[in-house]
Design a protein that fits this description.
Layout lengths: L1 H20 L3 H14 L3 H7 L5 H8 L5 E8 L2 E7 L6 E10 L2 E4 L1 H12 L18 E4 L2 E4 L2 E8 L4 E8 L15 E3 L9 E3 L6 E5 L3 E5 L3 E6 L5 E10 L2 E9 L3
Antiparallel strand pairs: 1-2, 2-3, 3-4, 5-6, 5-15, 7-8, 8-9, 9-11, 10-13, 11-12, 13-14, 14-15
Helix pairs in contact: 2-3, 3-4
Length: 255
Protein backbone atom coordinates (compact mmCIF):
# COMPACT_ATOMS: atom_id res chain seq x y z
CA UNK A 1 0.00 0.00 0.00
CA UNK A 2 2.80 2.39 0.88
CA UNK A 3 4.47 1.81 -2.47
CA UNK A 4 1.23 2.74 -4.27
CA UNK A 5 0.92 5.90 -2.18
CA UNK A 6 4.50 6.91 -2.95
CA UNK A 7 3.90 6.22 -6.64
CA UNK A 8 0.75 8.39 -6.63
CA UNK A 9 2.56 11.25 -4.88
CA UNK A 10 5.47 10.97 -7.35
CA UNK A 11 3.11 11.06 -10.36
CA UNK A 12 1.23 14.10 -8.98
CA UNK A 13 4.52 15.92 -8.29
CA UNK A 14 5.81 15.12 -11.77
CA UNK A 15 2.59 16.45 -13.29
CA UNK A 16 2.81 19.68 -11.30
CA UNK A 17 6.47 20.23 -12.21
CA UNK A 18 5.76 19.60 -15.89
CA UNK A 19 2.79 21.97 -15.79
CA UNK A 20 4.77 24.72 -14.09
CA UNK A 21 7.67 24.38 -16.55
CA UNK A 22 5.44 25.13 -19.53
CA UNK A 23 5.15 28.80 -20.42
CA UNK A 24 1.70 30.31 -20.65
CA UNK A 25 0.65 31.65 -24.04
CA UNK A 26 0.96 35.21 -22.74
CA UNK A 27 4.53 34.73 -21.49
CA UNK A 28 5.52 32.80 -24.61
CA UNK A 29 4.21 35.51 -26.96
CA UNK A 30 5.77 38.30 -24.89
CA UNK A 31 9.15 36.55 -24.86
CA UNK A 32 8.97 35.97 -28.62
CA UNK A 33 8.08 39.62 -29.21
CA UNK A 34 11.02 41.10 -27.29
CA UNK A 35 13.44 38.57 -28.69
CA UNK A 36 12.36 39.40 -32.25
CA UNK A 37 12.49 43.12 -31.46
CA UNK A 38 16.06 42.91 -30.16
CA UNK A 39 17.13 40.83 -33.16
CA UNK A 40 15.35 43.05 -35.75
CA UNK A 41 13.47 39.93 -36.85
CA UNK A 42 10.63 41.22 -39.01
CA UNK A 43 8.99 37.83 -39.55
CA UNK A 44 9.19 37.05 -35.85
CA UNK A 45 7.49 40.35 -35.03
CA UNK A 46 4.76 39.85 -37.63
CA UNK A 47 3.91 36.49 -36.06
CA UNK A 48 3.09 37.96 -32.64
CA UNK A 49 1.81 41.49 -33.36
CA UNK A 50 -1.86 42.46 -33.33
CA UNK A 51 -1.09 44.59 -36.41
CA UNK A 52 1.64 42.79 -38.41
CA UNK A 53 2.27 45.96 -40.44
CA UNK A 54 3.83 47.48 -37.30
CA UNK A 55 6.79 45.14 -37.78
CA UNK A 56 8.18 47.28 -40.61
CA UNK A 57 8.21 50.35 -38.37
CA UNK A 58 9.77 48.49 -35.44
CA UNK A 59 12.59 47.03 -37.50
CA UNK A 60 13.46 50.40 -39.02
CA UNK A 61 12.91 52.50 -35.92
CA UNK A 62 14.84 50.61 -33.23
CA UNK A 63 17.60 52.82 -31.94
CA UNK A 64 18.29 51.91 -28.35
CA UNK A 65 19.80 48.69 -27.04
CA UNK A 66 18.44 47.25 -23.77
CA UNK A 67 18.30 43.98 -21.85
CA UNK A 68 14.96 42.59 -20.75
CA UNK A 69 13.58 40.04 -18.31
CA UNK A 70 10.04 38.68 -18.62
CA UNK A 71 8.62 38.67 -15.08
CA UNK A 72 5.10 37.28 -15.20
CA UNK A 73 1.46 37.78 -16.06
CA UNK A 74 -0.65 40.71 -14.92
CA UNK A 75 -4.23 41.65 -15.77
CA UNK A 76 -3.38 43.59 -18.95
CA UNK A 77 -0.61 41.30 -20.21
CA UNK A 78 2.90 40.49 -18.99
CA UNK A 79 5.31 42.57 -16.91
CA UNK A 80 8.82 42.98 -18.30
CA UNK A 81 11.87 44.52 -16.62
CA UNK A 82 14.06 46.63 -18.91
CA UNK A 83 17.71 47.40 -18.17
CA UNK A 84 19.72 50.01 -20.07
CA UNK A 85 23.25 51.25 -19.64
CA UNK A 86 23.37 54.28 -17.31
CA UNK A 87 19.62 54.12 -16.48
CA UNK A 88 17.78 52.61 -13.52
CA UNK A 89 15.74 49.48 -14.29
CA UNK A 90 12.14 50.06 -15.39
CA UNK A 91 9.20 47.64 -15.22
CA UNK A 92 6.43 48.03 -17.81
CA UNK A 93 3.62 45.85 -19.10
CA UNK A 94 3.54 44.33 -22.56
CA UNK A 95 -0.13 44.63 -23.50
CA UNK A 96 -1.76 41.57 -25.04
CA UNK A 97 -5.09 41.12 -26.81
CA UNK A 98 -6.97 38.13 -28.23
CA UNK A 99 -7.01 37.92 -32.02
CA UNK A 100 -8.90 34.95 -33.48
CA UNK A 101 -8.29 32.97 -30.30
CA UNK A 102 -4.56 33.75 -30.11
CA UNK A 103 -2.60 36.12 -27.88
CA UNK A 104 -1.05 39.04 -29.79
CA UNK A 105 0.97 42.08 -28.74
CA UNK A 106 -0.78 45.43 -29.02
CA UNK A 107 2.25 47.52 -29.95
CA UNK A 108 0.70 50.98 -29.54
CA UNK A 109 -0.72 50.15 -26.10
CA UNK A 110 2.62 48.59 -25.11
CA UNK A 111 4.47 51.69 -26.32
CA UNK A 112 2.19 53.95 -24.23
CA UNK A 113 2.74 51.73 -21.16
CA UNK A 114 6.51 51.97 -21.64
CA UNK A 115 6.43 55.73 -22.03
CA UNK A 116 4.36 56.07 -18.86
CA UNK A 117 6.80 53.83 -16.92
CA UNK A 118 9.84 55.72 -18.20
CA UNK A 119 8.41 59.20 -17.68
CA UNK A 120 10.71 61.22 -15.48
CA UNK A 121 13.44 58.55 -15.42
CA UNK A 122 16.87 60.19 -15.59
CA UNK A 123 20.31 58.81 -16.36
CA UNK A 124 22.56 57.90 -13.45
CA UNK A 125 25.34 60.20 -14.79
CA UNK A 126 25.28 63.56 -16.57
CA UNK A 127 27.56 62.17 -19.29
CA UNK A 128 27.24 58.41 -19.51
CA UNK A 129 29.80 57.99 -22.30
CA UNK A 130 33.44 59.05 -22.04
CA UNK A 131 34.83 61.55 -24.55
CA UNK A 132 38.17 60.91 -26.25
CA UNK A 133 40.38 64.01 -26.33
CA UNK A 134 40.92 63.83 -30.10
CA UNK A 135 39.28 65.18 -33.25
CA UNK A 136 35.91 63.44 -33.68
CA UNK A 137 36.85 60.06 -35.15
CA UNK A 138 35.48 56.55 -35.59
CA UNK A 139 33.32 54.69 -38.09
CA UNK A 140 30.00 55.48 -39.77
CA UNK A 141 28.19 52.93 -41.90
CA UNK A 142 31.29 50.74 -41.65
CA UNK A 143 33.58 53.42 -43.14
CA UNK A 144 36.47 55.14 -41.37
CA UNK A 145 35.33 58.64 -40.44
CA UNK A 146 37.06 61.77 -39.14
CA UNK A 147 35.73 65.31 -38.78
CA UNK A 148 36.48 67.84 -41.55
CA UNK A 149 33.82 70.56 -41.40
CA UNK A 150 30.32 71.62 -40.34
CA UNK A 151 27.52 73.24 -42.27
CA UNK A 152 24.71 75.29 -40.73
CA UNK A 153 21.69 76.54 -42.64
CA UNK A 154 18.41 78.11 -41.61
CA UNK A 155 15.08 76.51 -42.43
CA UNK A 156 12.03 78.76 -42.56
CA UNK A 157 8.89 76.81 -41.63
CA UNK A 158 6.62 79.85 -42.01
CA UNK A 159 5.78 80.15 -38.30
CA UNK A 160 9.34 79.58 -37.07
CA UNK A 161 12.95 79.38 -38.20
CA UNK A 162 15.18 76.48 -37.18
CA UNK A 163 18.80 75.59 -37.90
CA UNK A 164 20.05 72.44 -39.57
CA UNK A 165 23.53 71.49 -38.33
CA UNK A 166 25.44 68.81 -40.21
CA UNK A 167 28.94 67.46 -39.66
CA UNK A 168 31.03 66.15 -42.55
CA UNK A 169 34.14 64.01 -42.99
CA UNK A 170 34.95 65.47 -46.42
CA UNK A 171 35.52 68.91 -47.88
CA UNK A 172 32.63 68.75 -50.35
CA UNK A 173 30.13 71.24 -51.78
CA UNK A 174 27.12 70.67 -49.54
CA UNK A 175 24.85 72.63 -51.88
CA UNK A 176 25.64 70.45 -54.90
CA UNK A 177 23.51 67.33 -55.05
CA UNK A 178 25.61 64.17 -54.87
CA UNK A 179 28.87 65.99 -54.14
CA UNK A 180 29.04 64.68 -50.56
CA UNK A 181 29.14 60.88 -50.59
CA UNK A 182 30.56 59.94 -47.18
CA UNK A 183 28.17 59.46 -44.24
CA UNK A 184 27.40 62.70 -42.40
CA UNK A 185 25.97 63.57 -38.98
CA UNK A 186 22.85 65.65 -38.43
CA UNK A 187 23.05 67.05 -34.89
CA UNK A 188 20.13 69.49 -35.17
CA UNK A 189 18.15 67.69 -32.42
CA UNK A 190 20.85 68.31 -29.82
CA UNK A 191 20.50 71.34 -27.56
CA UNK A 192 23.60 73.19 -28.70
CA UNK A 193 22.87 76.27 -26.57
CA UNK A 194 23.29 74.38 -23.27
CA UNK A 195 25.89 72.15 -21.61
CA UNK A 196 24.88 68.93 -23.32
CA UNK A 197 24.01 65.66 -21.61
CA UNK A 198 22.87 62.25 -22.82
CA UNK A 199 21.02 61.34 -25.98
CA UNK A 200 17.34 60.39 -25.76
CA UNK A 201 14.39 59.79 -28.06
CA UNK A 202 14.12 63.58 -28.39
CA UNK A 203 17.74 64.73 -28.06
CA UNK A 204 19.51 62.56 -30.61
CA UNK A 205 21.48 62.66 -33.81
CA UNK A 206 21.14 60.87 -37.11
CA UNK A 207 23.67 59.35 -39.47
CA UNK A 208 22.88 60.38 -43.03
CA UNK A 209 24.02 57.81 -45.60
CA UNK A 210 23.96 58.97 -49.22
CA UNK A 211 21.59 59.16 -50.99
CA UNK A 212 18.65 59.05 -48.55
CA UNK A 213 19.05 56.78 -45.49
CA UNK A 214 18.92 58.20 -41.93
CA UNK A 215 20.08 56.04 -39.03
CA UNK A 216 18.92 57.52 -35.70
CA UNK A 217 21.22 57.28 -32.66
CA UNK A 218 19.49 57.72 -29.28
CA UNK A 219 22.20 56.36 -26.97
CA UNK A 220 25.30 58.46 -26.39
CA UNK A 221 26.53 61.67 -24.78
CA UNK A 222 27.43 65.18 -25.86
CA UNK A 223 29.10 68.07 -24.06
CA UNK A 224 29.12 71.76 -25.03
CA UNK A 225 31.93 74.07 -23.90
CA UNK A 226 31.76 77.78 -24.75
CA UNK A 227 35.18 79.13 -25.69
CA UNK A 228 36.47 82.64 -24.92
CA UNK A 229 36.26 83.69 -28.57
CA UNK A 230 32.56 82.82 -28.79
CA UNK A 231 32.97 79.52 -30.58
CA UNK A 232 31.75 76.22 -29.14
CA UNK A 233 33.63 73.01 -28.54
CA UNK A 234 31.30 70.08 -29.27
CA UNK A 235 32.21 66.70 -27.81
CA UNK A 236 30.33 63.59 -28.95
CA UNK A 237 30.55 59.96 -27.91
CA UNK A 238 28.37 57.04 -28.96
CA UNK A 239 28.60 53.42 -30.07
CA UNK A 240 25.50 52.13 -31.79
CA UNK A 241 27.17 49.02 -33.19
CA UNK A 242 30.53 47.92 -34.57
CA UNK A 243 29.93 49.85 -37.80
CA UNK A 244 28.71 53.10 -36.22
CA UNK A 245 30.67 54.72 -33.40
CA UNK A 246 32.41 58.05 -32.82
CA UNK A 247 34.18 59.85 -30.00
CA UNK A 248 36.03 63.13 -29.89
CA UNK A 249 35.43 66.84 -30.50
CA UNK A 250 35.20 69.59 -33.08
CA UNK A 251 34.77 73.36 -33.02
CA UNK A 252 31.49 74.91 -34.13
CA UNK A 253 32.08 78.42 -35.41
CA UNK A 254 28.91 79.53 -37.19
CA UNK A 255 26.27 79.67 -34.44
Amino acid sequence: MKNKQYLSIWLVSLFLIAGCSQLSDSVRVTTAFWQAFNENDKQGLEAVLKAPKDAEFLVKGKSTHFDYEVLGEVAEGVEVKFSRFCYPDVIASTILVDVAGEKKVDFMATFRAQMAAMKGVSTTKKYCYDFNDVTLTGKLNGQAWSFVKTNIREINWGNKITQSVKVYAENCDVEAGGACTLPALNISNLKLDGEGGNFSNIENLSIYVYPSFNNIVSSGSYRITKLDDGRKKIELSFEKDRDNYLSGHFILTDM
